[in-house]
């Protein structure tokens, strides 16, 4: 008995010591005078499918531009930061310290910030006095050489399906970057080379799948793995369903039985359990947006991942995907935002119970928005007894509604780009009498709003008449 208790204590201490060793502090510091008194959030991604941001900390720059940040991590982690049109990147390793260098400061105009087609410029954070074996330095050097060779040979590899050219590029890379003691860097090289192999047959060969995926666990913390994974398994349900002799997999997908699908991926496709689960999650994410599969079916499959067969991390990933797919969809609650009218008084959706609310994000300084606001006058006059209009505008000093536009004009400090995905103006939503999103998005005033509201209120009228004639009908 004593021996059993002592053994249990030793095991417990061992587990605690192991757990403590898994987590280590990373110290990040530096000086960037251009960024004085600014703050920039540093984050990583929960997984490579949902790409949910996990905040690691915030760089807060002093008046002199000094900054420092301590981050707790358990493994080599890709850290990201979005600022001034940049997409900053750096790998950090547990227990290490980094003095980093920010790119030159630049100021974006409001139109640049709101341009939905503008993509941030990817940049690696610089590191002061790195050793020659520093991970970020090695990866950047490799990427420069890889890009040079890819630009030179890729078209020939893709067009001619030339295995010999792939071998040539791999030999050049191996000569330039021989084997190192860094398993992480070796993995980076391995999966970047997979992109060249992928160009030969789009990953359809059994040999390719065996080499790069079937027998190894996913490396979600490695960007090179993420890139090739998302290429290989893009729209995977569609690819499998459209292949010859695909009746079995189509039936398993349409049966909405997750266990059967997982069994097929592991036994028929020879995926290890972790790969099977990650591919299934990605497949559902992609299938939701295709017209080949029922959205309800995909959501049902995601719900089935709340099972002991799926790890806590996988279940969380599935939950994030489910939330992302259903976000801002009709029938869900509208995101909460703090609104104030032009007198500084709070405006709440709950102030208008059992009433339709037309939530209109607009900018009176924009000529297109003014046309929509003008068109809203006639619509408001027609339906003023049935609908409240809430206009959400940017903070405009001294703004007064001198044009007599309808509705309540409000401003908000909430991030509408995050909450309502508003990247351009105008952008509109219709909240139903039950307080849930009814039209998401809703038509803008000169884009068919009048017709849509007419149909809606006509339907409401007939339902009301039916109730009066037959009280038992709900």
Automatic annotation (TrEMBL):
Residues 328-458 form the Thioredoxin domain. InterPro entries: Thioredoxin-like_sf, Thioredoxin_domain. It comes from the Bacteria. This is Thioredoxin domain-containing protein. It comes from Aquipluma nitroreducens.
